[in-house]
Amino acid sequence: MNVLLAVLWKDLISEWRTRDRMVSMLLFSVLVVVVFHFALPADASQLLQTGAAGLLWVAYVFASILGLNRAFALELENEALSGLALAPADRGWIFLGKAAANTLLLFLVQAATALAFALAFDVGLGAVALRFAVVMALGALGLSSVGTLLAAVAVRTRYREVMLPLLLLPLMIPIVLGAVRASAALLEHGVLPTAELRLLVVADVVFLIVSFVLFEYVLDE
Amino acid sequence: MQAGVVDRAAAQLRTPSLLALVALSAVYAIAVLTAPEDSVQGVIQKILYVHPACAFAAYLGFGLTALAGALYLWRDEEQYDRLALASAEVGVVFCTLVLLTGPIWARGTWGRWWSWDPRLTVTLLLWFIYLAYLLLRSFTEGSSRAARFAAVYGIAGVFAIPLNYFAIDLFGGRAIHPENLGRGSLGAGMGLPFALGMATLLVAFFHLLARRLEIEGLRARSTLAAPEPRRSAARAEGSWPM
To answer: Which of B76, B131, B172, B200 is most exposed by smallest CB count within 10 Å?
Structure first.
């Protein structure tokens, strides 16, 4: 548990000192929102009411991939990853620390993007903000859990920026699907649907456990 | 390279599986040709004797990949990694066949090439997962690292499949695939060619798997025997590719 907190603290501190990842993720996902404006037909208010959740999650997924690609790139410098691997600690907890940092970062980016999106397209997110945050947090946790595992893999391959989305996208469909459906139901009816939430929670738990166990072999050098 | 139980099994399987394949294919072809034509779908229904059997072989290949990956991580024996690679490759071949025969059948009976039916979607995702698996192997430097990364991804992939299925089945759209075949759901005279198709394609799967394992075994032996290592020292195990 201490390892988790130590890694989380280290990641947050190093992120705070440069704010590189946060700023680039945020800028990117807001830019995606701007691209939506040009990509959608001029009179898209109807489409936006029904498709807002999907559009937002597309931006989230891309932003998360962008951030995850950097999550371990920093660790490669000065062989910090080897140091991390040599730490006398269960590597599962190192994974949880990294995943927690990624989740937190992604969640902040999601919240800011949602705000920008709601303002730009006049989507009524304000009334359901808290419940929407729950869905965002569950989605961020799922994306970051399996994403952290695969980022640790992808970062040590050739074409690592390309490799991560190829590895990650087909695995995270359950999370995207659950999150999009839950967000859409929330925006449309103002209630959190249980089936979608259950799917999100199940997917989160499965991916967390699988990644916790497998991370051992990813760092094993 | 130490010839393990996997390599021995592959070597022993080679000739019998080839003989069985030749014999079965002949009977299978006759059975398919003489099978009664479906009263509603017509001749296109005969894809039934190929399509589900290919899907079964593909799922078997991917299951084997994950199992062999787990064995590799547990026992740290290279033979299991070779098995994982071979079954992933053969699985992708059969999965490609499923994705090719499916649309042909769909066009003939459902009227369009593709539908986002849960089983179709999951099979497509499965195909993507294992193509990424093969890419990951070829983009990773160092054979033991590639083996470990691949094993990790193969196992994560096999956990994602039921989740994908569960999720897509719940929310992903209307199912138009028929339910799993129960007893008596096939028309008269269709059971035999169907069973023969299953048997033939399974034998084909194991034959291809054995041949692929043989190649991989030869490659491992030749790398060990060669005086010059294939990878330069800078890219050797343990150093970070930058």
So the answer is: B76
Sign of the alpha-carbon torsion through A46, A120, A69, A16: negative
Cα separation of A21 and A68, whole Å?
9
Q: Are the beta carbons of A173 and B145 separated by less than 8 Å?
A: no
For residue A152, the Cα-to-chain-centroid distance in whole angstroms is: 15
Does residue B54 lie in a domain region?
Answer: yes
**Tens of pLDDT, residues A125-146:** 888 889 999 999 999 999 999 9
Classify residue A44 by its DSSP letter: -
Those residues whose C-beta lies under 8 Å from the C-beta of residue B110, and which sit 6 or more positions away, are B176
CB contact under 8 A, A166 and B132: yes
Nearest by CB to residue B240, choosing from A79, A159, A195, is A79
How far apart are the C-alpha atoms of A25 and A66, rounded to whole Å? 6
pLDDT tens, A8-42?
Answer: 898 899 888 888 888 999 999 999 988 888 888 87
Could you give the CA distance from residue B212 to residue B93 in angstroms, rounded to a whole number?
A: 12
| pTM as predicted | 0.87
For chain B, the domain total comes to: 1
CA dihedral sign of residues A123, A129, A132, A137: positive
- Helix (H), strand (E) counts: chain A: 9, 0
Q: What is the DSSP letter of B186?
A: S
The answer to whether residue B114 is domain-embedded is yes
Query: Which residues neighbour A45 within 8 Å (Cβ) at sequence distance 6 or greater?
Result: A122
Q: Structural domain boundaries of chain A?
A: 2-219
Chain A interface mutation, best of B171, B235, B239, B242, highest count of A Cβ atoms under 10 Å: B171
Q: How many CB atoms lie within 10 A of CB A105?
A: 25
Task: Give ipTM to 2 decimals.
Answer: 0.89
Range of B100's domain?
A: 5-178+186-220
Give the integer Cα–Cα distance in Å for B149 and A158: 13
Give the type of residue at B102. Answer: G
What is the CB neighbour count within 10 angstroms for residue B234?
A: 9
CB A8 within 8 A of CB A144: no
Q: Which residues pair with B42 in a beta bridge?
A: B38
Element (DSSP H or E) covering residue B92: helix B78-109
- Record: contact A214-B156, CB cut-off 8 A: yes
DSSP secondary structure code for residue A46 in this structure = H
